[in-house]
Amino acid sequence: MSLVADFTLARGDFALEFAATVERGETLALVGPNGAGKSSCLQALGGLIPIDAGSVELDGRQLERGGSRQSLAPDQRRVGFVFQDLLLFPHLSVVENVAYGPRSRGLDRRSARSRATEWLERVGLSEFAERRPGELSGGQAQRVALARALACEPALLLLDEPLSAVDASARAELRRELRQHLDAFDGVRLIVAHDAIDAFALADRVAVLEGGRVVQTGTTPQICGHPRSTYVADLVGLNLFRGTASAGHLSLPGGAELVVASVPDGPTLAVLHPRAVALFRERPQGSPRNVWRSTVAAVEPAIDRLRVRFDAPVPLVAEVTHGAAQELGLGPGAALWIAVKATEISAYSG
Ligand SMILES: Nc1ncnc2c1ncn2[C@@H]1O[C@H](COP(=O)(O)OP(=O)(O)OP(=O)(O)O)[C@@H](O)[C@H]1O
């Protein structure tokens, strides 16, 4: 049993083309730059905006067929939503918020309330049942929104940046909890994540949307090991090169060339970890096969290290320790030698 979606839709000038199959018990994360179509995709699956062509099926039931007026309303789709702004009813108590869905699906008041109470217990919020949403922290409100979605016993759970209302200090804990709740839910789950950590921590597979199209789908190791676009490489913190390989040499668009180990000839993608980029004040002696001189474009702090950006002749990022940065006299405009071993660049057909 699963979600099988294959559809197109247009919103003004924007065109979305989405196809994915997600199994029950599986979480697919949608990632992509702003405006890529992630929210539109969830809205279409939930029946909030119409598709133009194609179809959406859930557990063998057709939810919508494009252009045919065959479209189930959102409340007939067995879909639960958690939106980034959560959209809790401010005038209802927490327990009434959670009971609202079951109630509007025909459950009597007492049963709906008892189901809501059960869900509040599961997300650890029993003692907040009578509060108003305005009296909750971001993390508590997020748990209420999740309980409210799950209380309707959906077959498909759609979460649009569910952790965005939560401050950084509470995020890690809430992410762990959310993963547990997702694992305990046996339906299909789709989550829009802005942050790579959220996507990779919460999902079994990740689909990358760019410009309204799915450009890559895979598990975390597949995506991290073989990013197919600059956006994905940036997301996972890697340098990505796209060029043409010939006899172990990768020619890049600006005219630069890298020596790479074992790569078939033809269009090629190659990744390089920023920590594998060595920086020197003087031209290094010895074995690295790729050595060139470049000027520092920018330096940014990254937890215990510094990320150093170079724009030409090969655009890349290097990561160095604070100690090394001092020795190198690092700063924008500094001219340095860059060395990369051919074996540190992993290349694959592009
Ligand atoms: N209500 C709307 N009416 C018309 N166009 C819309 C509407 N909502 C979104 N769009 C357009 O659809 C495109 C995709 O937007 P969408 O919100 O789906 O992207 P997203 O990937 O979720 O972006 P973000 O990460 O910024 O939330 C954008 O170009 C946007 O301008």
From TrEMBL:
Q: Where is the ABC transporter domain?
A: 2-236
| Short name of one Pfam family | ABC_tran
SUPFAM superfamilies linked: MOP-like, P-loop containing nucleoside triphosphate hydrolases
One biological process term from GO is:
molybdate ion transport
Q: Which Gene3D superfamilies match?
A: 2.40.50.100, P-loop containing nucleotide triphosphate hydrolases
Which GO-annotated molecular functions does the record name?
Answer: ATP binding; ATP hydrolysis activity
Q: Which SMART domains match?
A: AAA
Stretches assigned to the Mop domain: 285-349
Is Transport given among the entry's keywords? yes
Among InterPro entries, the record links this protein to: AAA+_ATPase, ABC_SmlMolc_Importer, ABC_transporter-like_ATP-bd, ABC_transporter-like_CS, Mo/tungstate-bd_C_term_dom, Mop_domain, P-loop_NTPase, Transp-assoc_OB_typ1
Taxonomy, superkingdom: Bacteria
Positions in coiled-coil regions: none
* Transmembrane segments annotated in the record for this chain: none
Keyword tags: ATP-binding, Molybdenum, Nucleotide-binding, Transport
This chain belongs to which protein, by name? Sulfate/thiosulfate import ATP-binding protein CysA
Source species of the chain: Engelhardtia mirabilis
Organism phylogeny? Bacteria, Pseudomonadati, Planctomycetota, Planctomycetia, Planctomycetia incertae sedis
